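Can anyone check this?
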Amino acid sequence: MLSKNTKNIINGVLFVAIFAAAATMIADIQIIKNLGLSPLVIGIVLGMFYANTIHNKIPSAWDAGITFSGKKILRFAIVFYGFRITFSQIAEVGMDGFLVSLIMLTSTFIIGTYAGIKFFKLDRDTSMLNASGASVCGAAAVLATEPVLKSQEYKAAIAVSMVVLFGTIAMFLYPALYASGILDMSAREFGIYTGGTVHEVAQVVAVGGAFTQETSDTAVIVKMTRVLLIAPMLILLGLYLAYSAKNNSKDTKANIVIPWFAVYFILVAGFNSLQLLPQNIVDIINEIDTFLLTVAMTALGMGTKFSKFKSVGAAPFYAAFVMFVWLVVGGYFITKAVVGTL
């Protein structure tokens, strides 16, 4: 016999899964595909709709299952995100693509965090979540960073909304800049630039796919390099947070928190690099993983009330805008400099 708490968790997870399934079907509509909106983004929108409308009509005991979806299922899904990457793909794009990814990730995260805290008076967690979404891989990066920071759900929702806004702008701006000749770049350079600076994987696919196959392939591989770099970033972030906690408290034995799911993510990517599993099996794993990520994102949205957004005002937008300008302008010059040097 299952305990009452276990039943509530199962009911809550199933409830979230229904919303996630709806998000998956909506994201599969052609017009939504054309906008580059992933099931993850649709999921958080549906979750937020629930949180601000019919939340009180659902048994509160199911909240345990919603929390489980946003925490435990999230970690599992991030680990299996590694099946989307192989080390050989990263090698194919070359050292210049890797360096552009590394430089843009590091600089954007630092600029976003610093600007958010110092200039726009955001709290640490909101600033870092905002920065992780812009610097790494959009909504998935926000999801992965949230458990390391142990932040409140609405802060991650704010960061995701900024990813959606500026990532969508990038989808239209980048092709326009390239087609107009303002960006003096070869097809490969533009691919590196796109993969190294656009927020979401789906948005990179949309931008790169509008041009040559070389541009598209290069953009996606560079983007996946950024995705892989989320693991060392989270490990370093965990060490930094532990160091800060130790310095800011009298407890000199503050624990070092290593996000093990990030380590397992690297191991899974390494296993996938060996190509031991047939591609059709890997494709199925990735489809299941996308759904699990959608479940986690939907659960995150279900913990987000619009009333909480009022406390931060327009500051997240300003911080995200600063990062967007850096990605577009700084990313261009860094790409030209790195590719021209190597």
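Reply from J.R.: I decoded it. Residues 4-341 form one domain.
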